Amino acid sequence: MTEVPEETGDERVDAIVAGLGGLGELPVSEHVARFDQAFSGLESTLAAADEAVPEIVPEVVRATPEAVDGR
Q: Which residues lie closer than 8 Å to 19 by C-beta, 6 or more apart?
């Protein structure tokens, strides 16, 4: 990988992706560890984003037809 992709707009993701930019300078034997680090970081970032979503959807799912119709 010789070039780092453009920014994603999320600083956390950009930092993880930037860490992959130096793969060409590492021995191939160290690439797997670097990819594992990136994967773990992206997975954690995604999980944190899921936790930040408001709890609106579960309220809608629990709503009864009567509540939706206004009866």
A: 34, 37, 38, 41
